[in-house]
């Protein structure tokens, strides 16, 4: 009679997974549930709450600054996703060719990703103001300059990181496919669009997801570079910050002068989570359908 040995990982795995699950529940699940509850309350502290139902959500959706920051962030995310992924793929494609010093170039392109967002924001703020001062303006005085300043900053920081993912995808393409395309007489352009890009779709899925969610969640760079400025006065006398993105708008609402705005900010945060999660899942659904099974 054969003796059956049980897998020790199944027997003792809980010793390793248990502490992680507890830490995840304490550090994420419980605060998340509590945050959803607080979005239905007016509060100053967690122990001092007053349930108000959907009042905070009504205030959030009727706030012109929140609506402006939503469309501004959506436009920023679309432009940054396209530019980051196109440029990162082109750089990765060039650096997988037989060129001298390609490892050095990879290191140089990746290095900006190691710099913190706040530091990057202040660095580029000085660069832009140094350039724009010759034209008698500033990045804080023109919303168009602020928008493209954020785009340039985001591209400079993210391209190197996405480049590494694209390089991994390009190097995973089977050599026999490339050889077969060459033997069949395919041009470089045909090989790129018919062989290389379809096989790199898993990398495109990952990079698109990361750049899309990063674009919507951008906060520290926005705070350091423009802080949402300049201001625009509306017809009712209120003002909005024309380069303020969603995360910064939530932050400014929560720490605003009105103590009752904390509940509104919490409602905005919940809406923000739903928005980013929905967009991310939709993007993953459509891009994964384009992936090629090797």
Tell me what the structure shows.
- Helix 2 packs across helix 12, helix 3 runs parallel beside helix 6 (143-171) and helix 4 crosses helix 6.
- Helices cover 69% and strands 5% of the residues.
- The protein is globular and about 70 Å long.
- It has helices at residues 8-38, 55-61, 64-94, 102-110, 117-132, 143-171, 175-183, 188-199, 201-217, 220-225, 246-254, 261-288; strands at 41-45, 48-51, 231-233, 239-241.
- It starts with 7 loop residues before the first helix and ends in a 6-residue tail after the last helix.
- The protein contains twelve helices and four strands.
- With 294 residues, the chain is mainly alpha-helical.
- A two-stranded antiparallel sheet has the order 1-2. A two-stranded antiparallel ribbon has the order 3-4.
Average pLDDT metric: 87
Number of strands: 4
> How many strands, which pairing sense, and closed or not: the largest β-sheet?
2 strands, antiparallel
> How much of the sequence is in beta strands?
5-15%
Q: What sequence of helices (H) and strands (E) makes up the elements? A: HEEHHHHHHHHHEEHH
Shape annotation: globular
Structural class: mainly alpha
How many angstroms separate the termini?
A: 43 Å
- Which regions are unreliable across 5 or more consecutive residues at pLDDT < 50? none
Helix content: 55-70%
Radius of gyration: 24 Å
Strand order of the largest sheet: 1-2
What's the number of helices?
A: 12
């Amino acid at each position: 009679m054969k003796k059956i040995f049980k897998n020790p990982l199944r027997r003792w795995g809980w010793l390793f997974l248990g502490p992680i699950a507890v830490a995840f529940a304490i550090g994420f699940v419980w605060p998340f549930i509590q945050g959803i509850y607080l979005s239905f309350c007016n509060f100053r502290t967690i122990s001092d709450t007053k349930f108000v139902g959907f009042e905070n959500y009504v205030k959030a959706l009727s706030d012109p600054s929140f609506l402006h920051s939503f469309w501004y962030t959506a436009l920023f995310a679309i432009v940054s996703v396209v530019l980051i992924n196109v440029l990162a793929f082109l750089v990765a494609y060039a650096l997988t060719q037989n060129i001298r010093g390609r490892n050095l170039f990879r290191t140089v392109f990746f290095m900006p990703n190691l710099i913190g967002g706040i530091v990057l924001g202040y660095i580029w703020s000085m660069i832009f103001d140094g350039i724009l001062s010759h034209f008698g303006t500033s990045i804080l005085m023109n919303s168009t300059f602020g928008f493209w300043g954020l785009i340039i900053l985001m591209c400079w920081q993210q391209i190197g990181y996405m480049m590494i993912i694209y390089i991994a995808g390009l190097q995973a393409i089977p050599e026999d496919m490339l050889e077969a395309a060459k033997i069949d007489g395919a041009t470089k352009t045909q090989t790129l669009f018919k062989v290389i890009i379809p096989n790199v779709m898993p990398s495109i899925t990952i990079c698109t997801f990361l750049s899309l969610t990063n674009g919507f969640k951008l906060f520290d760079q926005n705070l350091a570079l423009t802080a949402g400025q300049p201001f625009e006065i509306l017809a009712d006398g209120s003002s909005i910050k024309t380069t303020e993105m969603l995360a910064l708008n939530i932050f400014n609402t929560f720490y605003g002068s009105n103590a009752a705005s904390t509940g509104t900010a919490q409602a905005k945060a919940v809406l923000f989570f739903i928005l980013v999660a929905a967009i991310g899942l939709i993007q993953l659904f459509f891009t994964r359908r384009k992936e090629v099974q090797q």
